């Protein structure tokens, strides 16, 4: 008997040991083509479904012996990726491998072990499995821990992965995706709020990307544990990833963003300056802040109300003490040009007298634990229940709740916070919380990383419904791949420090190249109080981020532009004014993002990946096609050294010409930020306004920068509000600048019938190596004048009609 017990114990221990071992695909025994899918089956039941999405995008989807589950992902608007028609697709079987060939790529599948290699058509290996797909059974959950390891190609560099607060180049680092409320994070803190499992690789000056579409807790190793191996893995779900070919870094991000879908255009005012604090209350304080902006003539479009505007932190309510007449207040603010934005968190207070709680309870809209009880967690209102945004009927209910705020009260935008989801003391929900997950029931382990995204989706649906015919504006702290479709974002609870100013620059660039361009940071820092110098330097950087908002915690002092003295207020005002002049450029850059998936903020390597000196630099970035920015991130500095990409550039503040491919000194006291304009660029500017729509724009200034050679620029216009642009009510103007030693030609091509309010351009000429003695517009003589620019330069200029086709300067 004793022998039997010992034998049985041995057997149990042996099984336990097996449960921790790694498993691998067997030998491929069958490979077949089914349209643009290629199915490979192994002798141990493992399968690979290799899908050709486009000639540049391949999907690798693996299944163990259990087979494939439902094909659904929140990353895509329709749950699955849209495919393109292919002009060429070939499938061949060789003695030891299968080969799939598109116009752009070759994929080799090894028969011995299912490992894959992806090459470009020139034969350069872009991605090659090391161990390839393997997995480990996790007894506690019943899930497979799915893993993929790849060889690090010679000289490889890695970028992307969302909001990670670390060096731009990820090589040598490990990261985790598990959305977390990380108050006061530091450089290297991980994980943070957002979960974007997309990264870019660059080697031999050729770029590709990997999108690991798995919502479970995921890990990424960029040659950290082993110098010659990179890997990614998840605590459940499928090994399901997309290989995305460039060959440029810019094209990789474009392909990924188009795959997951870019956002709609925002209202133009959303690209203005926003002021926020935890918290502005009561009404008299909000009115005083508004008056402070208008009295000082500091432009501002939006004021925010944090959680204290609510009645006991109950979502969709107003405090009768702090804001007794919210509709009147919001209307009066709007009359002065201010749009009111309010916060909404996911926690619904457990209160039998609270209508939102009653409705959620009655209709069973709240998340439940595994054995049936409602999920309870403490956040700002106290003990709360939480909606299950992964159910369509719950999202529809949630969207309907915004009628009061948006349609009836006049609020213009909504800010979603605490949606990782965050719970006091515990961090987040327990793993056993259950979700509908679009009809594919799941636990919190699978739904956690998409919770914030789905809340933002439901919120955006509601704001859009009740703001119509105007466009919605929403903000989210947490998101997943594809979340850019529903919301803008910010980088979370940062700190008033020079290091965090540096981090804000990196994080916003990284989010932008990860498909999420409509992003900014809490200017000045949310935690602690900056001094005036740090605040002004931060405003200067924020002026070039798509989302431009000061936000701070009220218990650390005031953080309005004038809080540091009127001298610093004037300095901040100068950068805010520059932002408002640049609105047509910023809006055009957003339109390019909407149309082509181009990141609005682009790191230096994206501007010239053929120049290896750009690979490790991270301070410099471009906004759109033609502005190069490099913030000052140290106290007491009167300028900085920075690297200019190859080509010719003009220093914005002085018009000094510089040749790129080298470091240059940019003198920048507190009145300046290092800002260069690409030679040949046409930079449009509006007249100064205190808020979008304050005055009718009758003339647009075009700053034309000389180039010996040719350069193209774009100006997009659609009125900045409403959905007429979807019916063609927009105009795209393409400018081509061609310069010689003795002349400059500016040509305009116009597409679209939309008629903007302005009828003339004031063309300001920068960097001419000759006197502008003779000018003509469409064959008719034109008169040159001199203008003094905002930077104090006196330059030649000419006024022309907005419909001109050719301006000749000689």
Automatic annotation (TrEMBL):
The keyword Hydrolase applies. Residues 699-767 form the DUF5110 domain. Gene3D superfamilies: Glycosidases (3.20.20.80), glycosyl hydrolase (family 31) (2.60.40.1760), Golgi alpha-mannosidase II (2.60.40.1180). It holds the Pfam family Glyco_hydro_31_3rd. Residues 48-221 form the Glycoside hydrolase family 31 N-terminal domain. Keywords: Glycosidase, Hydrolase. InterPro entries: DUF5110, Gal_mutarotase_sf_dom, GH, Glyco_hydro_31_AS, Glyco_hydro_31_C, Glyco_hydro_31_N_dom, Glyco_hydro_31_TIM, Glyco_hydro_b. The keyword Ligase does not apply. Residues 597-683 form the Glycosyl hydrolase family 31 C-terminal domain. Residues 263-588 form the Glycoside hydrolase family 31 TIM barrel domain. Belongs to the glycosyl hydrolase 31 family. This is Alpha-glucosidase. It comes from Hymenobacter glacieicola. The lineage of its organism: Bacteria, Pseudomonadati, Bacteroidota, Cytophagia, Cytophagales.
